Amino acid sequence: MNNRLYFASDYLEGAHPKIINRLVETNLMHTVGYGDDPYTVSAKERIRKACVCPDAEVQFLVGGTQTNATVIDAVLKLYQGVIAADYGHIAVHEAGAIEYTGHKVLPLKSELGKIKAEDVRKYLEDFYQDPSYTHMVNPGMVYISQPTEYGTLYTKEELTALSEVCREYKIPLYVDGARLAYALASVENDVTLADLARLTDVFYIGGTKCGALLGEAVVVPNPELISHFFTIIKQHGALLAKGRVLGIQFDELFRDNLYMHIGKTAVSYAGEIKSALQKKGYPLYFDSPTNQVFFILEKSKVESLLERVEYSNFEQYDDTHVVARYCTSWATTREDVDALLEVIANFR
Amino acid sequence: MNNRLYFASDYLEGAHPKIINRLVETNLMHTVGYGDDPYTVSAKERIRKACVCPDAEVQFLVGGTQTNATVIDAVLKLYQGVIAADYGHIAVHEAGAIEYTGHKVLPLKSELGKIKAEDVRKYLEDFYQDPSYTHMVNPGMVYISQPTEYGTLYTKEELTALSEVCREYKIPLYVDGARLAYALASVENDVTLADLARLTDVFYIGGTKCGALLGEAVVVPNPELISHFFTIIKQHGALLAKGRVLGIQFDELFRDNLYMHIGKTAVSYAGEIKSALQKKGYPLYFDSPTNQVFFILEKSKVESLLERVEYSNFEQYDDTHVVARYCTSWATTREDVDALLEVIANFR
Amino acid sequence: MNNRLYFASDYLEGAHPKIINRLVETNLMHTVGYGDDPYTVSAKERIRKACVCPDAEVQFLVGGTQTNATVIDAVLKLYQGVIAADYGHIAVHEAGAIEYTGHKVLPLKSELGKIKAEDVRKYLEDFYQDPSYTHMVNPGMVYISQPTEYGTLYTKEELTALSEVCREYKIPLYVDGARLAYALASVENDVTLADLARLTDVFYIGGTKCGALLGEAVVVPNPELISHFFTIIKQHGALLAKGRVLGIQFDELFRDNLYMHIGKTAVSYAGEIKSALQKKGYPLYFDSPTNQVFFILEKSKVESLLERVEYSNFEQYDDTHVVARYCTSWATTREDVDALLEVIANFR
Amino acid sequence: MNNRLYFASDYLEGAHPKIINRLVETNLMHTVGYGDDPYTVSAKERIRKACVCPDAEVQFLVGGTQTNATVIDAVLKLYQGVIAADYGHIAVHEAGAIEYTGHKVLPLKSELGKIKAEDVRKYLEDFYQDPSYTHMVNPGMVYISQPTEYGTLYTKEELTALSEVCREYKIPLYVDGARLAYALASVENDVTLADLARLTDVFYIGGTKCGALLGEAVVVPNPELISHFFTIIKQHGALLAKGRVLGIQFDELFRDNLYMHIGKTAVSYAGEIKSALQKKGYPLYFDSPTNQVFFILEKSKVESLLERVEYSNFEQYDDTHVVARYCTSWATTREDVDALLEVIANFR
């Protein structure tokens, strides 16, 4: 559109070329609606295979907030709330979509987006020791994101610990994988799709930020967790008549393992950007291992940087600095990165 | 996929070639998210022009049920319900999505999907004459669809009458235009987009069934009707991060008046199919003026017809007959229709 | 307050003298809150005995609409609705309190307030035969009232039939007993509290209209039906801090079998009123067997009757007549009835 | 019931003798239902007078959680949440009743139950400066309690400051007065009912904890704030058929200024108990000015104290201590206090 650089987020372009091609190829094929078409059926099967979870229920929804609200409402009982990181997406940035379903988000202190199994355990222990706990919102689910809003990762050990406390208390563990491809692409990651299917009770594989035009794939390893999921999706306005639009995209994302490597260049570019920033003397806010780069920027420079680069001022750092964020994606090109590196090198 | 014929609905294919081409062309352009991109801005402007309503708020949502639930919840006050045809989509086929928002659907008797202004008036008069009306759901909106689920059309006169009673009682009138392109394409139609903008308080222009991959355009002629609509859309899980996916499609649908004639062949083919059925001795259930053909079929023939044609058994007619429905669409081809005409001619 | 006669409803006075005395006696006793006091514990035990259902969970709520909304929401699953008579209280007169919980009331045709087991069966059969039933509200409960809003009674045979179809389809059967004392007091009644406990899944024993200041006792024969009911009651704003206010009243209502005969004079007086009306030439709308008398009254006489008697104009009969209702209660006195009989005898 | 002492809360007895007498006196009077009876009409008028607010709408509801949920839902717009102290009753102890209405409770840091006007201002300023605020829950109301859950009081100056920031941002200010009588009875209090009516947009005058069997009186100084409040109350299951049960009680509470002094002995006794604790060497947690006494107790003594006194272990203090709470009420007698003082004097 213009010669600004776009590093504000990972949903700034259309779809991965393979996906857009597939949409073109299949465009005039006739199929039945509501996800019973062969593309969707195939996509579900590929995802079950990638998760090594042959019995999983897989459903395709449209966007992240919608998916979170629908899944959380479907899993929680009437009197329950969901434990989440105090700065988690559902706690802060979904316009109250969870509360709109009637359920409270129970915030737990977090560090760089992550919550600890021991804190969950403490919360649950304290809850059941409170003599008035029947007057309080019953904790019925634990929500985490992988990677988190800060791009950080739960290790397999950490996820196992969370899984254990959840299973001890019979509370489903739910993973929001809006950016899951960038976790899978990180060299620091040791959590596979099969681990997610084994250690959690429900999770979603993000499409919107990971190469699709739109779409998120919900995986329920043990389908008994959610009865009548299809009707619930419809009730929540999350059912596409033309379900194949999602099916085709995920079928492509899971054909030839595309999803496993679609985030690789993004993560690698993020690494280059981090180095350049540090070299130029911009302190990182912390060393995020996926496709997001957080650094500390003088407020006085915000304006002039925005002229060149569409990026995100993530949060206040102190009175004179902000935490700025660059975000790469599957669509980021060598040229974009080189141009950004030049901006960084020449910035003052 | 195979050589069956597909006349079951109007969401069985991808998008109109012009739309899919535009998605391809724009695919790697960078834009900001959430509908602030130039494609979406342009699409909104084109729709305002087509509706001759320069101040209208236009918002793009993903699907019909979602749109209905979000709009109705946004417009109704806490204590209100929505009057709708007793067989209307929101009353029967949306899995309780409206009730899920906390509001009752107040069913009104209908004929071939249409409700009458005089019946709405009677309902409102009776309501306010009931001494216990403060113990009842306050009617806060009237919902109709154009065309209706039966493909029938409100005339400009009928719509004007509905508009008048709504305005007299200060109740917003909302039109579900899931298949609006097929109304606009019907020779029997005398209601324009400008009429809708003038006579109603909110309506949506259907994309999913009218040539888009997905998407519905909500038009609010007087934006004061819904405050903070953007946040409400987000709260209802109806906001696309990659808003341009909708913007691009509607920008194309309203470029060169595509939306005005995209339904023309479908309506014309429906006419041919009606003639062929009548000629062959299959009574029409009634003469539907848009892209749906309802006819009466012996139950004993259902199986063998389904082997050849994907169609819809709409409802029970009597003990030995069903009301069957063929549905054409923008994607229906001359070849498809000829093949169907042959099926009809040879059917026994 | 004045010398008008009050026959408009059965909630026009305070509490049965035994109850008010008991409230006075216990007034300054100290007890713990939220229903753990000894009065409430005793009341629950007496109700369990009266229902011959030693394992039942009993909870006391405040009013009828609140009880219906809380119980129905507690029992239904997210995607379900409740089948009810089309003129049932929850369908018409509770200001959408059920829809407010997110669930649709699925209206079933009724006769004098009653629905038929065969119609429920037909509804369920048709529902599951509809190919698009997963797009519709799943029927998850059947709601009836005993006596109905028309004062009519389900016989044990009819209740058994309803119970059977509900159990066949694994759908809980719920009975609203707002006026249950008047059913139990009717010579035409053959349904006992034990029958209710045996044939239904949850029911409530009305207090407000049956001698208490306020309060309704919910009985759940198999407590597994509703998990965490206490917290749900709190969440629905239906938990009294001073729970004993309800416990004391129901303890008295179920001491010495008061509840079994508290409605007897009301039903007997209603019989006298019916005879007087018929003798005077006022046709009964139908012969209601409990404490309500429905008769047909010329509209022209409404005004002058209202001057003497507070009664209820129940519904339109025809252009020149209404269905009028007299309602007796536990508080109706011989003097009141004699005065009303005189009004009737002299009315013109 | 036994010779334990009851200082656990202020809802452990029935009603003030004047109220119970009035209920007895009026018991068999006939009145119409739903709050149109003369007692309720009179009670409303007395409350308007006491608040020096002749145009206020007054409605009687049953309990605190119900009142909070109904009022907050009635006032907030669909997309809004309510700012409250992070340890406020609605944030912690109402089983998610507010979230159940679809609205988020937005927690603000508090000190001894109180929030500061400057923190509210900061919250609102930050909110509107956040570039993504339209993706977040819009703050639509400020909720405080007077006295707070800690028995502390807002001064007139503090309340004025809160009122000013709310009016600047056009956000209603709501005061939960569950224990308002104990605020009005405190020598430290300088906020009158007229101040509440002048400085806030809606508040409730607590009955349940302040001498009534049950009931809370909602006051809306400018009735335009809440349209159709009656229907909303019904919809929320908060409408009593026998409305006079509340009307009679509040009519008595506001006859002869009973409400203004009903809390006086309770506050005075609390003072005596504080002195006795301090004398005996039990540190107060802080010096609460109303009817609650918070002190620090060794965990090892909890058991033996509970044998003698029903009191409340309010929260954890440290590993070996709890914050214990004694609560007095209108029903606390000289004898009760003397007995407690003896327990304190002899405790070890």
Gyration radius of chain A (Cα, Å) is: 21 Å
* Main beta-sheet annotation of chain A: 7 strands, mixed
- H-E order of chain A: EHHEHEHHEHEHEHHEEHHHHEEHEEEH
Structural class of chain A: alpha/beta
Give the terminus-to-terminus CA distance of chain A: 26 Å
Oligomer: homotetramer
Q: Would you identify the regions of chain A where 5 or more consecutive residues have pLDDT less than 50?
A: none
Count helical runs of chain A.
Answer: 15
Mean pLDDT of chain A: 96
Mass-distribution shape of chain A: globular
Give structural notes.
- The structure is a homotetramer of 348-residue chains.
- Chain A has 348 residues and is an alpha/beta fold.
- Chain A contains 15 helices and 13 strands.
- Chain A has helices at 17-25, 38-50, 64-75, 89-92, 97-100, 117-129, 156-168, 180-184, 193-199, 229-235, 244-253, 258-261, 264-280, 299-308, 334-346, and strands at residues 5-6, 57-61, 80-85, 105-108, 138-145, 173-177, 202-206, 216-220, 284-286, 292-298, 309-310, 312-318, 321-327.
- The first copy, chain A, has a 7-stranded mixed sheet, sandwiched between helices.
- In chain A, strand 5 (138-145), helix 7 and strand 6 (173-177) form a beta-alpha-beta unit.
- In chain A, helix 2 (38-50) runs parallel beside helix 11, helix 6 (117-129) runs parallel beside helix 7 (156-168) and helix 13 packs parallel to helix 15 (334-346).
- Chain A starts with a strand and ends with a helix.
- The interface between A and B is large, with 55 and 56 residues.
